[in-house]
Amino acid sequence: MSFIADKQTLEDMNMLGKYNHHSIFNLFNKVKTTGGEKLLQQMFQTPLTDAELINKRSRTFAYFQSTQITFPCSNEQFGAMENYLSGSIGKFFPGVIIYHASKKLQAAVLRDEEYPKLQNGLQQTIAVLRQCKAFISQFEEKARQKHPFYDELQMVKTILSDPKLEWLNKAQSGQSSLLNTARYDYLLRHTMQQALQTVMDTFYMLDVYLAVANLAREKQWNFATALPNGTNLFTATELRHPNINKAVANPVSFNSDSNLIFLTGANMAGKSTFMKAFGINVYLAHMGFPVAANNMEFSVKQGIYTSINVPDNLDMGLSHFYAEVLRVKKVAEEVSSGKNLVIIFDELFKGTNVKDAYDATLAVTAAFSEYRNCLFIISTHIIEAGEVLKHQSNIQSLYLPTIMNGSVPTYTYQLETGISADRHGMMIIENEGILELLEAQIN
């Protein structure tokens, strides 16, 4: 079963995007190889829903976080080997000899570049395979005991120790004779092609593990513990946004008897940032990746839905309010189907009038809260709804305060228990001199 996170959710949390410099993917994209980058993209697109697999991946990252190991090859070297091995070669060795003889003749007579390129690709591949073999030997000396990536590296060691590859350490650098070039080429691109693809795939995986582990060590991030679904537990201390330097941290706690946070606070108090931080860390935790939180434990969920930046759709004739309603309907369908989900709603029904927003926020929040297998964070400016909802035992009323220094608002970004009483909108408008500006233009 795949983890659910639709396009709207991924955009709200800014999860994906190789060319989006502020995406969470780009934050983690410190890999050395193109193959490693593709694997990292795949991991971001397919979070896990099995607690055992999540914890196994986390343990592997944590292990490499504790080491000082560097990836042994460059992207150029691995790219050259990948290009070389992906080329076609005949199934029968005599035909390969004829092919090489033909290409060598063309290179001599017609100055054709294909044969020199083939020889270069062969030499690059030999060099990379030697480096991989040396890396495994050095790594085993450092490890001295079984580790989470042991089986994968042992499989590569077995492949590279195959008697058919004994010549690797003896092969001379530079151009080989026609017969040796043909023999090596046939062995690498036909006889052992699938086995060598396994070697590359394993080192791409190693590339990802080392890159993510190094980032976790640099940022001093930790690894969450995944629990089987059903307990509906989430707890973390010092949870913060991973893409904000020196972000303010907050504790977060949920269980079946306290499964909804009703969040209030002024604009700019940090509500959206807190909710995104929570959602991003939930997503990363299901990937088995490091999280910007301490002591994090979570029951595995089937997916996450957010409604933070819901756009209108003029092409379909949808107003902002109706787009919000359709988003809530979509989430309601998923929740009522029995799925175990994390739901984040920022400013429900802000596209309609205050009375309708109050009634809808109150009714929808109360209805969602009854699904004790899911976790919810719902923010609003309609603090009157919070006064009614705070009497439900499973709803946590939290707010982000505003502190006034005279007429200037400041923000702690630190969660407090209760419902916000901040009403500083007009004061901020006055501080910006908007009314005076308009009056001056009239006069």
From TrEMBL:
The keyword Nucleotide-binding applies. One of its GO terms (molecular function) is ATP binding. Keywords: ATP-binding, DNA-binding, Nucleotide-binding. Residues 258-439 form the DNA mismatch repair proteins mutS family domain. The keyword DNA-binding applies. InterPro entries: DNA_mismatch_repair_MutS_C (IPR000432), DNA_mismatch_repair_MutS_core (IPR007696), DNA_mismatch_repair_MutS_sf (IPR036187), MutS (IPR045076), P-loop_NTPase (IPR027417). Pfam families: MutS_III, MutS_V. One of its GO terms (biological process) is mismatch repair. GO terms for cellular component: cytosol. PANTHER family: DNA MISMATCH REPAIR PROTEIN, DNA MISMATCH REPAIR PROTEIN MUTS FAMILY MEMBER. This is DNA mismatch repair protein. It comes from Mucilaginibacter limnophilus.
